[in-house]
Structures are given as C-alpha cells and as structure tokens.
Specification:
heterodimer, A: 431 residues, alpha+beta, 8-stranded antiparallel beta sheet, 5-stranded antiparallel beta sheet, 22 strands, 26% strand, globular, B: 241 residues, alpha/beta, 7-stranded parallel beta sheet, 9 helices
C-alpha cells in the first residue's frame, strides 16, 4: 500500500505487515529488509521503506505501579492512550512532543522533546529500561546502567538497531489536568530571546513566531509559558476533534492566506501579558484537535524543517536565518521557536543547548533547493537538523551535524542491523 | 462476557468497558495473547478479568462455558460475540469440507452460543446480547458467499432471538460492520471505505448502551447496503461484486 510520513512527502509503495505480539514480530523479521512503522507521525521518510512492520496493534500495557508511577508497555502504545489511562489517576507524561498521536517506540527512537526540554531533557531520559529485539533474534534489556552503550544508541537511533518491544517509563505526578498559561507578546526576535532568558525558570516555554515579518518586526512572536496547576481536577478533554477529510487544493495555503492567519493569531492576544488556566490538551496539543491537519497542504504534501543552533551563535545566527526565510516569501504557519537545554548522552539525539526553530514548507518546485541553502546556513552556525522531521537532507549535512554517526554505523554493522533495518532516510544518509 | 476476545474489534471494545471499571469474562483460543490482553484490561481499569481458553467450535463445551461465566460474574449484563474467520472463498468452492468448517466457525458456533446464552439470560430476566454479523450477510455475492451465508444465518437468528426475548427483558443487538482494517483482512488493499477497529468498537459500545436493534458500522454502510439490496436479482447476478 501507499505509505508516507506525516508530511505526505515522500510517498512510497510499501508492503505493510501488522504485528500484534512478539511472535508476529519475530515471524515478520524473517528475510526482512525494512523498518518499523508506528503511527506515521514522523514527518519525513524515517519510517518509510519497501517493507514495514506496523505496530499499531502492538499496544498493551504490561505493568503499572500506582505508588511509583512507573508503567511498562508495548512499543505501539500511543502517548494519547497513556494520557487517557493515567491522567485521571494523577500521572502525566514527563516529556511530550506537540502531538500525542505518537507511539512510545517512536518517541524513544526519535528521542522526542517538548516544551520543558530546558529543564527536563528528552523522552528517553524517563525510560527506566527497554527491551530490544536484535537482528539475531536475541532480546536484550537495556537501560542507562545495563547495556548502556546499546541504550544510548537505541534512544534516538531511529529504529535502526532492532525492534523496541517494550519500555518502562517513569510518569510524572500531577494534581490537576490543567496548566497555568502565561502568554507574552514580543515585537521582534531580540525581545523574544530576552524573554526566554527572563523566564528560564518556567517549566514549559515555547514561542510561536511569525516568519513572514521582516525589518523591525522580524521575529515577532508570542511566548507561551506554562506551569502545572494545582486546581481544576484530573478530567480528560471533553471536545471531540474535527477532521480535514481530504487533501485541500494545493493553492489553499499561499503566502497571503498564511500572512493573514499569522497576523490574526498575533493580534488575537491583546495585552502584552495574559494569564489563563487551560486544559493540558490545548496547551500541549493544539493541532491534535484537527485530525489530518497535514491535508491542508494538499496532495504534494509539505516538508517540516527543524534545526538547532548553539546558544553562542544565538541572536546573530537566528536573525540571519529568519531573514533568509522571510525574504524567500515561503510562508510557514506558526513556526515554533524554543530555547533548548543541555544535550544528553544519546548518540543521535537532536537537542543541544541552543535555539531551535521548526517550520512547515509546502512542497513545490523550488523547495528542495531552498532547503539545501538553508542547510548551509544552519551548518555555518554550527547547527543540525532533526531526523524525525527530515525527508531530504544530504549525507554530508547529516555527518557534520551528528559527529557520533561513525560509532552508530559501526554498532549497526556489529549487530548485523545494517542488513535488516533500513529506512529511506538511513539509506539517504548512509547510516 | 466477550467471546473471541483477542480479535481486534473485541479487544478495542473491551477497553471501553474496562475503562468504566467493569468485570470482564474473556474467551479466546490463544492463551498467551489472552493473558496479555486480560492483564492490559485490568491496568486500564477493569475491576476483575476472568479468562477462559477455548476453541468455540467445540460446541459441546458451550453450556459449561456460559454457566462458568455466570457464576464468576454473578450475572451476565452484556455479552459480545466477536469470534470469526475470513474464509478463502476460492478454496471453499473446491472443498466442501472446508466450506462447512468455515460455516461452522462463523455460523453454527455462534448459533450454539446464542442458544445457551439466550436461555441463561432469559432466566436472569435482563441483559444485552450483541453479536458481530457482517454486511456480507445482507446479500450473497460471488466473492465471499461462504462467509456471507454464515453471517446471513447469524443475522436472521439474531432477528428471531430479539423478537423472542423482547418481552423477557433481554435485548439483542445485531452488529454489521463493513470493511474493517484488522489482521483478518490484512491482505486487502485498503481504501476510503475502510474503518479502524477502535471506530467499530465505539459504535458497538454505543449500540449496546442505546439498545439499538441493528447497527451498520460505520453508519454509511446502511446506505450502501440499502442500494445493494435494492438491485433486482436479474441484474445483480451479472455483476462482479
């Protein structure tokens, strides 16, 4: 069947095998050349191959300790399921990306991060241990203390070393399902960067940035901060999501409609500073309310682009890159800017201390060339690109961004994983 | 009580019941997967889960099975019959014995279970019996009439049972899913008409709660089947459906 990541680019013809338990996975790995596919929420081609094992139904909870908040589950369990089961009992995800429709296995393989990265790091840092099915059929348990080398390669390892079967996670206690949200308006890039520093103590922080603004409004944004509330109760969200049923015409999103949207979004917040209590759902997952929002970009899909540049390169680098994007007139809905915290011990994890920016670009004729030029700027400032979002970077760009790639390739060879697990991305990047 | 509890649709439906803290009695053939699912349902909120490993084509075990479920649960409030297989139609055309085996799995075993359940629940004087039939049972088509015949038998049996039990306080729900993306249909090319098991599960749960008689899932299959059923046989027989 036709398979793609969340960006709907690229699309491949893949043989999909659904697996519901370990025996299915073991049977599926006989003469297998491909990759594990969860919910298809990585944007690019990291979960695409001619053959995939789909783990959607490999989704049981295996154990839960109500005193410690530790849960062990199969890799196909989604973060949405964990929230639904455990929020009413007073437990929350210690780290969550901007969508809850990802699997635990995918969250580990991409070592995802969220709005609290500057304090709490990546998803894998709350993985107490995991079980990995290796190419030779062995099942290895690994953790930061047991098989630590393998653990740090697997977390962020894009599913290229083996199949993550299950993981034990440390959840976070909460007294309420609500977030005390504070929104601050920033007129330009310098202002928002200063605000990030001023509010470094906030548990959650992220800025929505209008990438179409130029001149003295370059980097105009809304900084959103959040703290877990003590009040409001532990309810689940009530509203049912809406959906975009079919791909919209490619023309629906153009720089005028996007500029109008971004302007409205910014103007919606009147005061320089507003405070309100919101449910965790709109705070963490605003786009999850619109199922298949990716179809707004039309049949050709879009490329998501996320990079990080070191904090030292800071204002100058970000200014330069933003200007390059704004001048290109390639609109992006609500780009996201965040100040990331320290790097962890995983070999291919994306975040390091610095500024990260994530944007969507509608796929069109000149886009890939434009992104190559953007890569050069990012590399110039010592940055790198997030593998979970990538569908097009070059091998050279990858190697410069991820200096530990050689160790990873070496381990893959040693385990025989290079002959079994390959995605379009791993082949493109030569890993 | 859920029979065929390891099927994708049954497992998703069980999760909804588990989340509201119900007591569950689960029946399936694969002991290992059943244990995994029972444990999962307990963590998701089921007050208690009983399991019974059994091949439901062994009709002689049905009476004891229902008795045991009733004893362990106290009484059976809701039963969902969800087991089944998708026969290889071509192979069945060449092999009468295979065709009958498939008819046994999808038709006779269900009729036997329903007979025992009906009596047990009639004695209770309350409860809901839901069984998964199929849109394939609405009209015979060359591509899967062996499956369709068994499901058609189940649909008619349920219809009669509903009529019999209505005055006894027992309600009967006939569930007719269309195309569902499950391991049973793994080899099919999926298009717009295909639904995910959790969508069907939500529909089954609602149908039970609302005491519906016959539900097509998703709902639009009602329209599709209305059209398919209205085509005159003289034309229908020439179509390649």
């Amino acid at each position: 069947m036709q398979l793609s990541g969340w960006g709907n680019y690229p699309v491949v013809e893949a043989e999909v095998r659904d697996v519901a338990d370990v025996a299915d996975i073991e049977a599926g790995l006989v003469n297998f050349h491909g990759i594990v596919y969860g919910k298809g929420r990585s944007y690019g081609d990291s979960a695409l191959a001619g053959e995939v094992l789909r783990t959607e139904r490999f989704d049981r909870i295996l154990a839960f300790d109500a005193h410690t908040g530790r849960v062990r589950c199969q890799a196909g369990v989604t973060l949405a399921a964990l929230l639904e089961i455990f929020v009413p009992r007073g437990w929350f995800l210690p780290v969550t990306p901007g969508t809850k429709f990802v699997t635990v296995g995918g969250a580990i393989a991409s070592d995802v991060h969220g709005k609290n990265h500057h304090h709490h790091g990546c998803f894998s840092q709350y993985v107490v241990s995991l079980a990995l099915l290796l190419p030779d059929g062995r099942i290895e348990r690994c953790s930061p203390v047991e098989n630590a080398e393998l653990f740090h390669a697997v977390c962020g390892g894009m599913g290229l070393l083996g199949v993550i079967l299950d993981a034990e996670l440390q959840l976070k206690p909460i007294a309420s399902a609500f977030i005390e949200e504070k929104t601050l308006k920033a007129g330009n890039l310098a202002e928002v960067m200063e605000l990030f520093d001023q509010h470094a103590a906030a548990t959650y922080s992220v800025a929505w940035i209008d990438c179409l603004r130029t001149g003295k409004h370059l980097g105009r944004s809304l900084l959103m901060l959040g703290e877990h509330s003590e009040d409001g109760g532990l309810s689940l969200p009530g509203k049912t999501p809406v959906t975009v049923p079919v791909n919209l015409p490619g023309l629906a999103l153009n720089r005028f409609s996007i500029a109008a949207f971004n302007a409205l979004y910014y103007q919606r917040v009147r005061a320089r500073e507003t405070v309100r209590r919101v449910h965790y759902e709109p705070f963490f997952y605003p786009l999850d309310r619109i199922l298949h929002w990716n179809r707004m970009y039309g049949r050709k899909g879009f490329a998501q682009y996320q990079f990080v540049i070191p904090r030292e390169a800071g204002a100058r680098g970000m200014h330069e890159i933003l200007r390059f994007i704004a001048d290109s007139k390639r609109g992006s809905f609500l780009a996201v800017l965040k100040l990331l915290g320290a790097q962890n011990a995983n070999w291919l994890s994306f975040p390091f201390e610095g500024y990260t920016l994530a944007l969507d670009f509608k796929m069109d004729a000149g886009l890939l060339e434009f992104l190559d030029r953007l890569d050069r700027l990012v590399l110039y400032y010592g940055g790198r690109i997030y593998l979970a979002k990538d569908a097009r970077m070059s091998e050279a760009t990858f190697r410069r961004g991820y200096p530990r790639w050689e160790r990873f390739v070496e381990l893959r060879r040693r385990l025989g994983a290079d002959r079994v697990f390959n995605s379009l991305q791993s082949q493109r990047l030569g890993i | 009580m859920i029979i065929g509890a390891t099927s994708a649709i049954a497992e998703e439906t069980a999760r909804i019941f588990a989340q509201r803290g119900d007591r569950l009695f689960l029946v399936a053939r694969n002991a290992e997967r059943l244990a995994l699912i029972a444990n999962d349902l307990k963590i998701r909120g089921a007050a208690v889960t009983f399991t019974e490993t059994m091949d439901v084509t062994r009709l002689e075990l049905h009476r004891d099975l229902i008795t045991k479920a009733q004893q362990q649960l106290g009484s059976i409030d809701v039963v969902l019959i969800a087991h089944g297989s998708l026969p290889d139609q071509r192979a069945c055309e060449q092999d009468a014995e295979l065709a009958l085996r498939e008819f046994n799995t999808n038709g006779l075993s269900v009729i036997s279970l329903l007979t025992h359940l009906a009596n047990a629940m009639e004695a209770q004087g309350r409860g809901v019996i839901a069984a998964i039939s199929s849109v394939a049972g609405d009209r015979g088509r060359q591509s899967n009439y062996v499956y369709g015949a068994a499901k058609g038998a189940v649909s008619v049996f349920l219809q009669g049972l509903r009529n019999r039990l209505v005055r006894k306080g027992v309600h009967v729900v006939t569930v007719k899913p269309g195309f569902v993306d499950t391991p049973m249909t793994a080899q099919f090319k999926k298009g717009l008409l295909w639904a995910k098991p959790h969508v069907i599960a939500r529909g089954i749960y609602n149908a039970i709660e609302e005491r519906r008689n016959v539900v097509y899932l998703p709902w639009f299959w009602w329209g599709i089947m209305a059209v398919i059923k209205s085509i005159p046989e003289s034309i229908f027989k020439k179509l390649s459906l």
